[in-house]
Write a structure and sequence with these properties.
Layout (H helix, E strand, L loop, with lengths): L14 H4 L19 E2 L5 H12 L10 H14 L7 E5 L5 H8 L3 E6 L2 H14 L3 E5 L11 E6 L9 H14 E12 L10 E6 L9 E11 L3 E9 L7 E9 L3 H10 L2 E8 H4 L8 E8 L5
Parallel strand pairs: 1-10, 2-3, 2-5, 3-4, 5-6
Antiparallel strand pairs: 6-12, 7-8, 8-9, 9-10, 11-12
Bound molecules: S-adenosylmethionine (SAM).
Length: 302
């Protein structure tokens, strides 16, 4: 635990006193580029191992959905793709492969891509144990250098909502490039109302967290760039053994209206074919509000 009396961090002026930018209120950002901090360190060893634990814990829905929802969502995707066996699916932000394995068992050729080394290692081991031939790539979708390689792509659980808007667009463009002509992309977008489930302000002293294996003080706040479309969570991590260092992480929650997301898809070359309410997809009217967008990559010049 933190030990104030014996720790040099508490004998001198606390570092937060010296960092006046942390005191400026209200935090006022007019553009997502102004939000300070680094994006979540998905590829960091410690971070990726901790987030993997949550994704594998069926008791919480922090990193993925409960197994019965995963099953129903996957069956739904299989039902809207004609002849799943003829498809090569790109599972974007695949995590430990909980969806990818269901798709593979249904006869699809599957490639999963994720930034988290721990999730990819788990996914590879799990597929090998199950005798499933799934390809896993550790990397960012926005940097995927594939052209006309897949016939379908799937990005669920608000994958695009959690990206800086410019990165969101780069990612949709990368998906478009990666799809074959007439390939189908399925993006799940969370609704603005789901923000209410996050605690806007939080501070804790913890023995460890996603951000550090050492005891530290952890502050989190939600800041607004645009009240209707762009919020960010800022997390400040104070480690008493490194009193001069405050690490700041940012995590976006960007929402799109239906017309904004259709416009983004169109600008990247997609035609929106259909939308589906997540609560209908899993037949649970009380669940979180989100929309699945089904879009076709228009590449054949038609
Ligand atoms: C909320 S988890 C969802 C995992 C999985 N889709 C599921 O529902 O079980 C989001 C995943 O996206 C990955 N991720 C975040 N940014 C990414 C990026 N730019 N490219 C690829 N994966 C990314 C994270 O590492 C994490 O595993």
């Amino acid at each position: 635990m933190l030990a104030p009396a014996s720790n040099p961090a508490y004998r001198s002026e606390p570092v937060i006193w010296q960092r006046k930018e942390f005191w400026r209120r209200p935090l006022d950002f007019s553009h997502p580029d102004e939000i300070p901090g680094q994006d979540l360190p998905w590829s960091d060893d410690w971070f990726s191992k901790q987030t993997l634990k949550d994704m594998l814990d069926a008791e919480n829905d922090i990193g993925t959905r409960p197994p019965d929802c995963i099953e129903r969502e996957s069956r739904w995707l299989l039902s809207i793709l004609e002849e799943p066996r003829n498809h090569h699916l790109l599972d974007i932000g695949c995590g430990p492969g909980l969806y990818a394995e269901i798709f593979s068992r249904a006869g699809m050729k599957v490639t999963g891509i994720d930034l988290s080394p721990a999730a990819i290692e788990y996914a590879r081991t799990s597929a090998a144990k199950a005798g499933l031939d799934i390809t896993y790539v550790c990397g960012s979708i926005s940097e995927l250098n594939a052209t006309n390689a897949y016939t379908a792509a799937f990005a669920n659980y608000g994958f695009i909502n959690n990206l800086h808007p410019a990165l969101g667009r780069d990612s949709v463009e990368a998906v478009y490039r990666a799809l074959a002509p007439d390939g189908v992309a399925v993006f799940e977008l969370l609704h603005r109302g789901t923000l209410n489930q996050f605690a806007p302000l939080l501070w804790e002293t913890v023995d460890n967290s996603y951000f550090s294996s050492q005891p530290h003080l952890y502050l989190q706040e939600m800041v607004t760039v645009d009240a209707t479309s762009c919020h960010a969570f800022l997390t400040y991590v104070f480690n008493p053994d490194l009193p001069d260092e405050i690490r700041v992480y940012r995590y976006f929650f960007v929402t799109y209206t239906d017309s904004e997301f259709r416009e983004l898809l169109g600008a990247c070359g997609f035609e929106t074919l259909n939308t589906h309410d997540y609560r209908d997809v899993i037949a649970d009217p009380g669940n979180i509000q989100s929309t699945y967008y089904v879009a076709r990559a228009k590449k054949s010049g038609d």
